[in-house]
């Protein structure tokens, strides 16, 4: 399984902090934000990783990360997203890198307390389709929200004003190679972006999407409030714990 870290975008919700740098290079406790999603993939047993970045500070990722030696990697791949076309548009750029293999995708501002090795192994056994990770949150309207029928996800609604469950779809996804064909069929949403929720709903329609609950705490760091929370959580407990 290969890994893709999506670290593009302009980080406008974090202005003025992002006037001078990519948001994924901002500090979370004692290290840059981008370290956390890369370590999450490494802890899941993934060693072949691509970083999708963008904006005016893309070269800073190369200066910071190099070939990924700090994470025990022999090589780290990079590609560049022009503009802000959305998560699915950024993922589209990894098609050549994926080369038909299953992938684990993580958003560059997502930070977890534990690990996702159990979900990665479950998806390796699953072989086809997609897997998402859910987490109960206080503010599901900020995220993609699953509509559940018993143990089955029947639909995902993007940032609904009236969420139909208390769960958020976290920024960790597992996909087979069909994901790139699905992305090619997408139309831009009202935000002018290719939405990852539409990708997940396509897998739901095909009957090949599964889900697991994410262990431990989870947060994004895309707003001032969630950036502050991420610093608090990592300072209190640490992140990317391998045990459990």
TrEMBL record:
SUPFAM superfamilies: Nucleotide-diphospho-sugar transferases (SSF53448)
Bilayer-crossing regions: none
Catalytic activity from the UniProt record: dTTP + alpha-D-glucose 1-phosphate + H(+) = dTDP-alpha-D-glucose + diphosphate
Keyword set, alphabetical order: Magnesium, Metal-binding, Nucleotidyltransferase, Transferase
Domain Nucleotidyl transferase: 2-232
Family affiliation: Belongs to the glucose-1-phosphate thymidylyltransferase family.
Protein name: glucose-1-phosphate thymidylyltransferase
Gene name as annotated: rffH
